[in-house]
Give the backbone structure.
Amino acid sequence: MSAQVGRENVVLQSLAQIGACGLFLLRILAALPRSLRHAGETVRQLWFVGAMSLIIIMTCGLFVGLVLGLQLYYVLAIFGGTSATGSVVALAIYRELGPVVTGLLFAGRAGTSITAEIGLMRATDQIAAMEMMAVDPIAYVAAPRFLAGLIAMPLLCCVFCAMGIFGGHLVGVSWLGVDNGTFWSNMTANVDLWKDVINSVIWKSAAFGAVISLIAVFQGYTTAPTSEGVAYATTRTVVASSIAILALDFVLTAFLM
Amino acid sequence: MTDPVHAKPDDRTLVRIRGLTTVLSGKTVFDKLDMDIPRGKVTAIMGPSGTGKTTLLKHITGQMRGDVGEVRVDGLNVPELSRDELFELRERIGYLFQNSALLTDFDVFENVAFPLRQHTKLPEVLIRNIVLTKLQAVGLRGAASLTPSELSGGMARRVALARAIVFDPMLILYDEPFVGLDPIALNQVLKLIRTLNETLGITSVLVAHELEAIKQVADHIYLIANGKVVAQGDPKTIADDGSPWTRQFFGGDADGPVPFQYPADDYAQALGFKQGAA
C-alpha cells in the first residue's frame, strides 16, 4: 500500500515538475523581448556554453567517427560493400549520432554549468539582489542562457558531424584503403540536404538545445538555496536532459523521416 | 474617491504598515502588525531569531505579500502594485543583504555600476564618475578592480552599500548589517549608516541584534515578537519599559516569554515513562 502511494507521489511530483517547467518556458518566452536589452549577456553566454564546449565536442566527434568508420568497414566488408563506408558513416552521424551525442555532451558540459551557476546565484541571494535592483532575473539570467543554448547546439552539432566524418575518412581512406573518390561520391549521392542535414542536424539539434537549456535554467532557478540543493539540481539536469533527448529523438525522427 | 493603491504620500511617515497578517507553513509570522517608519530617521527592528524581521523587510519591498493588511511605502500600497510599478518603487529603495549578494561575475566597479547600466543610458564617463563617487563615500575607491572573492566581509558589505546608494534612494533597508564584522569594520559600517542618513537624509531601516551598535545609530527601535510589536521607543530608554519582553531580550535571559525549549510533546512521554509513574 505505502509503496503504491510512494509511486503515485513520484508520478505526481514528476508531472508537477513538467508543468512548472512548461510555465517557466512561458515566462522565458514572455521575457525574450526584454532580454534583447541584454544582448551582451547573451553573447557572453554563447561564449561560455558554445565556444567553451568546442574542445569536448570536436574530440568526441573525432573518436565517434573513427570508431564508426572502423566498425562499419568490417561489417560492410562481409558483404563486399566497403565502398559504401562514407555514405553509411555520414548518414549515421547526420541522422542520429550527431544530434544525440552532441546533446548528451552539451547537457553534461554546458547544462550542468548553467544549473550550478544559477543555483549558486540563488543560494547567495544574487537573484534576489537583481529583483531588488528592479532587474528582471528571468530577462537577465534565464532568457540569455536559454537563447545561447538554442543557438549553440546546432552550431556545435555541425562541428561534431564534420569531425565525425573526418574521423570516418581517416580510418576508411587513410588507414583501411577505401578509395577517396568513392568515399566522397557515395556520401554526396546518398545524403539528402533537406532530410539529413536541415531536418536531422539543424532542427533536431536546435530542439535538443532548447530542451536542455530549459531544463538547466529551470533546475538552477528553482533549486533549494543550499549546497545540497545545487548538487541535486545539477544531477537532475543531466538525468532529465538525457531522458528528454532520447525521448524527443524518437518523436522527432518519427515526424521528420 | 481615494485610490486604494496610490494614496497621497504622508510627509512624516515613509512606511506605514497596518494590520499585517502573514501565515507561513501554518505558523503565524505576523498577527495584525502595525508599524510606522518615519522619514529621514534611522529605525531599528529588533527581536528574537525567527520572529520575521527579514520577512518584514521582504513585505516592505514586495518580495513577499501578506495574507491580510496594508504595507504602504511613500503612499503606495505595495501588495497591490503591478510588477512594473513595484520595479519603479524598488529603483527608489536600496537593500543591503546580510551576505552582501554581490554579483560574482563582475568586479567591484561593475557591481556598483550594474543598476546604472540596467536603468539608464548615461555616457560611460558619467557612470564612471558616479561609481567612483559612491566607492569613495564607502572608502573603497582603491578596490574598484577587485573581484568579490578578493574582498573581506566588511569590504563586501561596504561595496553592497555603495551599490545600494548608487541611485540616491529615499529608503535603505539593512538586513543584519553587522553580522560577522570585526569591531573596526562594524564601526565603519555604523559610521556610513549615520553619515548617509545625516548628509543625504535617507530613511534607514535596520534589522539587527547588536544593541550597543543600534544605540549609536538608531533614532527609534521596534521590538517584535509573537507576530506583534511588543515594545518600541528611544534606544536609550526602551530597555527600561519594564515589560517581560524587553527585560528578557535586552537582558539576554535564556528563558522568559521566549522559551528556552522549542514547543514539543511531553518530555516524560517522549522518554517512554508513563505519566504519574514518578
Observations:
- The interface with chain A takes residues 61, 63, 87-88, 90-91, 93, 95, 97-99, 101-104, 114-115, 118-119, 163 of chain B (CB under 8 Å).
